Amino acid sequence: ETMEVTLKTEVEAGASGFSVKGGGNEGIFIKKVLKESPASKIFSLREGDQLLSATIFFDNIKYEDALKILQYSEPYRVQFSLKRKIAVQEDLEHSTARHKKERIGQVDVL
Amino acid sequence: ETMEVTLKTEVEAGASGFSVKGGGNEGIFIKKVLKESPASKIFSLREGDQLLSATIFFDNIKYEDALKILQYSEPYRVQFSLKRKIAVQEDLEHSTARHKKERIGQVDVL
Question: CB A107 to CB B24 under 8 A?
């Protein structure tokens, strides 16, 4: 008797040492994981796991590689995480300098 | 005066109509967004946005496209979302049939 779990791997670099199979309606599955590889030791992938999604972090990525990833993923469902500079509204002028300073920085608007 | 926000786009298919620039230490930035394109209308991307990460969902993806995405992202930081079948432990045999049934299904182990 089995049960299904969904899980997320740690965010790590260098997911090498595995192959996939499937595609289309069937889904993408881990076909083979090389022993002692990062896929096995760091990501703990196992043969038979279904890959539901992959999040690729763009820090220190080569332009060409980012471009290819974006091009190949274009037809599919994607979600981007963005950093955006936005203008601080005029009405903040009436607040104190100290208050203004606190408003600057990173804010999550999920 | 500006502030920075981080935000996530909706999960949608077909992120077309934009170009990127940058790479390496600098980061990847949205260079141009075509008006009336999905990138503009559906994803609300704006020129100057920094792409921190992209999550690609593998439902209904072609094998070849999934393979390319995994190959190009291999050197970089990634996170996978997986579905895995696991064996239900023997000690569950002592529980009631109804209880067993409740254990079967999707469980998040984030």
Answer: no
